[in-house]
Amino acid sequence: MTSPPDLDLLNITKRFGSHRAVDDVTFSVAPGEFFSILGPSGCGKTTLMRMIAGFEDPTSGDIRIRDKSMIGVPANRRPVNMVFQSLALFPMMSVGENIAYGLTCRGVARAEAEKRANRMLERVGLKGFGDRRVTALSGGQRQRVAIARCLVLEPTLVLLDEPLGALDLKLREHMKIELKQLQATFNTTFAYITHDQSEALVMSDRIAVMNQGRFEQVGSPRELYHNPATPFVASFVGETNRWQGEIASTAGGTVALRLPSGATIMGEGAASQKSALAFVRPEAIALSQDQAALGTLPNRFEGRVAAVLFDGANSSLLVETPGFDEPVRAVLPQAGPLAGIAVGAPIHLGWASQATKVFAA
Amino acid sequence: MRSAQRLTLFLLMAPAVLWLGLLIVLPHVEILILSFSERVAPRVYAFGAGNYLEFFTEPLYWRTFARTAIMSILVTAITLVLAFPIALYIARVARGPTKAMLLLLCLLPFWVSELVRTLGWMMLLRETGVISYLLRMTGLADQPVEMLYNDGAVILGLVYGGLLFMIVPLANALESLEPAVVEAGFDLGGSRWTVLRRIVIPHAMPGIVAGSIIVFMLTVGNFATPVLLGGKNGLWFTEQIYAQFITRFNWPQGAAFGMLLLLLSSTIVWVGLRLTGQSLGTTLRQA
Question: Looking at beta carbons, which residues of chain B come within 8 Å of A166?
Answer without folding.
Answer: none
